[in-house]
Each structure stands twice: as C-alpha cells, then as structure tokens.
Design a protein that fits this description.
mainly alpha; 434 Repressor (Amino-terminal Domain); single chain; 96 residues; 41% helix; elongated; 6% strand; 5 helices
C-alpha cells in the first residue's frame, strides 16, 4: 500500500483496498461546472496538481487528505458534504 510521503501537499493513497471507499463519489466535475471553473484554474488556485485533481474528479482516488479537501472547498466555496457523496451500490430486487 502506498503511503503519503509528505513531499507534496496533495498526497493521495491510490492503493487502498477498502471496498467501502468505492461508495463515496466525488462531485468535483459537477461543482467545477457550476462554478464555471476548469481543473487547470483550480490547480493554480489550490496548488494541487491537475493530475491529482483529475484522479479525484474521475472517482479513482481511494483516500484524500483533509488539508487537500479543505483547500478545494475553500477555493470552490463549498463544503465536503457537497463535494463528496455516499452512493451505495444498488442491490438487485429480490423476486416476490
């Protein structure tokens, strides 16, 4: 499992194996569209790399530091609850 190195302010743990994390969806793309902002502009304003923002936007991140989330929320003037949502997998209906 990859461990944050502290070398960059936006270390993401991309190798986590917790299946529950797949139920958390990042709405970064939607929030950016609502604000009329691009990933490149968000990157410039937060100091978070475009690559790491893209990982979040495309729901490939398995973990995110609170400091990273706080910077994104501050720039987008939003809250973690608006940016991250819990979306449990749909369960097939059982036959009646």
């Amino acid at each position: 499992m990859a461990r944050p190195t502290g070398d960059t302010p936006d270390d993401l743990d991309l190798d986590a194996t917790d299946d529950d994390a797949t139920h958390i969806q990042c709405r970064l793309g939607e929030v950016l569209a609502e604000r009329g902002m691009t990933l490149t502009e968000l990157s410039a304003r937060t100091g978070i790399t475009v690559v790491n923002l893209s990982v979040l936007k495309n729901n490939r991140a398995r973990a995110v530091r609170f400091s990273t989330l706080a910077r994104i929320c501050a720039v987008l003037q939003t809250t973690p609850g608006e940016l991250l949502v819990h979306a449990p997998p749909e369960r097939p209906e059982s036959p009646s």
